Amino acid sequence: MAKLSLSELKAILNSVVAKTGISNPSFVETRNNVVGLLDKIGKIYTLDTDYQLDKLYMFDGEYLSFGKTIEEWQEDLILPADYDSTGANALAPSDPTYRPVDYSYTIGKKVIKTTIRNNNLERAVHFEAQLAEIVAIQFKRIEDSMAQYRYGVKREMIAKYIDLAKDAQGASTTTFAVSTAYSVGDYVRQASSGDGAKVFAVVVKAIANTNTHNWAAAVAAGELIVFDLFKVVAKPVDASTGEAFIKAVKEDLEIAQDVSEGHSLNGNTLGATSNLKLIVKQGVIPELEVGTYAGAFHREDLAFPADIVVVKDFGSADSKYYAVLMDSRGMRLHNTYNATFENLNGEGAFVNYFRHTEDTAHVSRNTFLRVYSAE
């Protein structure tokens, strides 16, 4: 009997555990038995994972049994008037005013399909439980695929929300001019300042062509609401940039939790918003925790008074946008059709299963929104 040497054992183990015999994509038959029968597969298994995690579940809307279109309206606040002891206008109408109504339409039907064949999987498994597991996974993948689709739609909705904000704050080519008529909901911009920068606004009170207000006067008279939807702040990469981002968010939280204007797409006056969501892309929070929180003496001063949700991405949005602070009511994905059908093909001896879905994606023009951009 030879004495065991660690170096010799290492060499033996290196040759025994061959890479070609581990996770090999092809099956090589062996007949290492006296009869010469085929050596059987001893175990069949799968390691499944959770595909149904939807980190944006809070934006699920209720099921819409009838109708596919969503209509949103918002009534304005009422300006106080001087008291008139004569009551001369008591019987005169005073109709309320509203922000422009907007509509969201169905994003269309989608179908998720899978096929289960008879007399097919049976030849590959050892017993009934293994067959049942494979079939169960096929059905589970329908639900997994549905969940990933809806999660992806919500991330793309954030991208489109950002696009709508860009349209409001930056896309208008109409320069505001005196003695020009404008309708409620029109987007306008201020003439360029010396550095070429432009300020954008939305018309919230109809302006007649006899109106002589310049930009400043129109803003002061409440005819224009200046947009403030974006904030440029460096993406957190160290303690300094992390603290700057936290400060920026806390400033916006103070704004959102009080009465404000200019922070919604419709330019409506917003009331205090308490249920806020800070949605950030992957990579931001670790930098804050390691680069900012870890070195802070008073960590409580750095805490966000808002729910933080970390997501993979913001769909097709430009990579410079890395965080969004929004009212939790500001986005909803409403399912309007959800049905599963089966179709038996007797000649082919298989069954097709079809999962049908249809949704309407809606983002609000009347709730708080702040988009953080690295540039």
Secondary structural class: alpha+beta
Distance between the termini: 73 Å
Major sheet attributes: 5 strands, mixed
Low-confidence stretches: 295-299
Helix percent reads 10-25%
Shape estimate: elongated
In N-to-C order, the SSE pattern is HEEEHEEHEEHEHEEEEE
The domain count comes to: 2
Rg (CA only): 31 Å
Number of strands: 13
Portion in strands: 15-25%
What is the fold's blueprint, element by element?
Layout lengths: L5 H11 L53 E3 L29 E3 L1 E12 L10 H41 L18 E3 L10 E4 L11 H6 L3 E3 L3 E3 L6 H18 L19 E6 L2 H10 L13 E5 L9 E7 L3 E15 L4 E14 L5 E5 L2
Parallel strand pairs: 7-13, 8-9
Antiparallel strand pairs: 1-2, 3-12, 4-5, 5-6, 8-10, 10-13, 11-12
Helix pairs in contact: 4-5
Fold and architecture overview:
With 375 residues, the protein is α+β, with helices and mostly antiparallel strands. The protein folds into two domains: 208 residues, no CATH class; 57 residues. Helices cover 23% and strands 22% of the residues. It has five helices and 13 strands. The strands form four sheets. Strands 7-13-10-8-9 form a five-stranded mixed β-sheet, with helices on both faces. A three-stranded antiparallel β-sheet has the order 3-12-11, covered by helices on one side. A three-stranded antiparallel β-sheet has the order 4-5-6. Strand 11 and strand 12 form a beta hairpin. Helix 4 crosses helix 5. The longest helix is centred in the middle third of the chain and has 41 residues. The N and C termini lie far apart (73 Å). About 1% of the residues have low confidence.
